[in-house]
Design a protein that fits this description.
309 residues; Rossmann fold; six-stranded antiparallel beta sheet
Length: 309
């Protein structure tokens, strides 16, 4: 059996149906067929003739036969992309009770083993085909919801999948636009609350590459400053140690000076002291003087300290 999704009505033959005497529309193709005409010209009759042939079991229609005629005939040819697949013939007559009666014949135009047409079950085949191949023009005409009418046209044109993909893409674009607008509003609010860094001045455009170079140079300079700062801290620590050592030496020097003064005073007060004591005191004074001279020389050489005496 053919792929029902690809079937199209390629020929419509109508005789004495409703207000139509004779209609023959051949090779409709894959596109939509537009029916144009004045009121009463038979546009609705053509649509109803298609419906009457495609209705499955339990089909019913009021006054399908044109007045003055004994019967009405509607024949549809259904084709896929390669060849004709089915021919549906609906013949409407009137029963003795005056009610319309339809005789339906559905032929599978594929050939059987002996080369004869293969007949399929009448209404069973139609019931399976209508949902896949039929665009119900009357339902479309009666539908007032614009979105539903559009969906019916898209389905009839066989572009549902592509249509859904485009709609999804459109929805994505709409969402992206909403997000962009929200971000723009947020940035605009921030800009309003931001103080102009250069009021009254015209700002110049910043060269991104030059800004990157300046940023890199500033980073390197900051690293240099950090290294120098660490060096200064180290020197400050050394200076502190030297100053502490200097304070100790100054204290020692003051003690030596005081001892020297005391020794000189003792010599002045004891001129007739024993020679041994005098010699010992002199040696002691000379020793202290030598130590004192050495300390003064060291302080003077290292830190420029003058003789406190």
């Amino acid at each position: 059996m053919a792929d029902n999704e690809s079937l199209r009505i390629t020929r419509l033959e109508v005789g004495d149906f409703k207000g139509l005497r004779a209609v023959d529309i051949t090779r409709m193709g894959r596109g939509l067929v537009m029916l144009c005409g004045k009121n009463g010209a038979g546009k609705t009759g053509i649509l109803e003739s298609i419906e009457s042939a495609l209705m499955g079991g339990g089909a019913s229609m009021q006054e399908p036969i044109r007045r003055g005629a004994e019967k009405a005939t509607v024949r549809l040819t259904l084709s896929d992309n390669l060849k004709d697949r089915y021919r549906i013939t609906a013949i409407w007559t009137t029963t003795k009770s005056g009610k319309p009666k339809r005789e339906l014949e559905v032929s599978d135009l594929g050939l059987g083993p002996d080369g004869s047409p293969v007949r399929a079950a009448q209404t069973t085949l139609l019931d399976g085909l209508v949902g896949a191949i039929a665009f119900d023009p009357l339902s479309f005409d009666r539908e007032t919801n614009a979105e539903k009418r559009l969906a019916m046209l898209v389905s009839a044109a066989g572009i549902s999948e592509a249509w859904d993909a485009k709609n999804a893409e459109l929805d994505g674009s709409k969402n992206a636009r909403k997000e962009a607008n929200a971000e723009a509003k947020r940035l605009t609010a921030i800009a309003k609350d931001t103080t102009d860094p250069s009021p009254g001045k015209t700002l110049e455009r910043v060269d991104p590459e030059a800004a990157i170079v300046r940023l890199r140079d500033a980073t390197e300079h900051n690293g240099y400053r950090i290294n120098k700062s660490e060096g200064v801290k180290h020197l400050d620590a050394q200076i502190g140690e030297i100053q502490a050592e200097q304070s100790k030496l100054v204290e020692m020097l003051a003690t030596a000076v005081n001892d020297r003064k005391l020794a000189l005073k003792w010599l002045d007060e004891n001129p007739a002291a024993d020679a041994v004591e005098a010699e010992t005191a002199a040696v002691d004074v000379e020793s202290r003087n030598a130590a004192y001279a050495a300390q003064v020389a060291t302080l003077h050489a290292c830190w420029g300290v003058a003789d406190p005496c």
